Amino acid sequence: MTDACRPFPVPGRARKLPDRAAPLYTAPMTRQWTAEEILALGRSFQPACVLAAAADLDLYGAIGEGEATAGEIARRVRGKTRGVTILLDALAALSLLDKRGDRYAVPPSLRKLLVADHPESLLAMTQHQANCLRRWAQLARTIRDGKPVEVAPSVRGADGDRASFIEAMDNISRAAAPPLVAELMPIRFTRLLDIGGGSGTWTIAWLRANEEARATLFDLPPVIPLARDRLERAGLLDRVDLVAGDFYEDPLPGGADLALLSAIVHQNSRRENRALFRKTFAALVPGGRLLVRDVVMDATRTKPPAGALFAVNMLSATEAGGTFTLGELRDDLAAAGFANVKQLRKDEWMHSVVTATHPRA
Asked: Going from the N-terminus, what domains does the chain have, and what CATH number goes with each?
């Protein structure tokens, strides 16, 4: 489920999937740096923090479609007027709000992106990136101590952070999933097992591409109600079995001929991935197929550049996660019993796809 906190955009393939997590700047891999450029890079956290605070407070939703004064907005977000005023003015300075006199309004182009209920909303992803920012701010301590630092929940609380994370995965995958599935077709199956499937974004895409198939979505107990709601809204709940469990502790539901690990392996160590691959192998019928969608690094571990920085994100957030090369994934899949490991799709970000098959008896 950890398909987030993309550091910066990099050149993609000619056939590029929609990028719903494009950040604020692009840094070339090699360049001649000036003193001012280094200082500007060091200051680049500032607009990110301003946007993060607005997202955490759901400030754009509080303003709504009209105009409001700082005092009115402060009451709506339960904030202090001084702090809210300074935040509003900073957002206006960054062209992230309109200001007329003492009143503030949300530009129409941002209303659809930063208000929760719009179908194109990225609010949850922005809130999740705010949580990433809090961990990245302690990166030196993480590197020195060898483990992620404990960070306090956002102003929305631990439950709110969990909900925004699950919703964020849909924010960045809902536009990418249908064209990626179409690109991989024809992959036919009768039963999909979506492991760590979140609220069902990828299950929905695969079932819509295979109208006779069914699916099992497996994820932690607090996630299952979110999946049920999204699948019901998609009109697909009657084709999906929702199974609560922890893939670190529990066996996976059996009988699938297609298994999906979508943005999962990067949160694990190689040892943990081998264990998960073994469970997946046991859940597949002979002749079944596994698809791994994730970052795939080259042998230098510097390309794709976004993957190298995403490894830093995993360092900040997990005990042993990271990004892996095709060779490492091939070895770990083979150790679990899989055969015919190959890369179906190469991407500059999270949409590389590796496949492996369960040998027939």
From this structure: 35-170 (1.10.10.10), 175-357 (3.40.50.150)
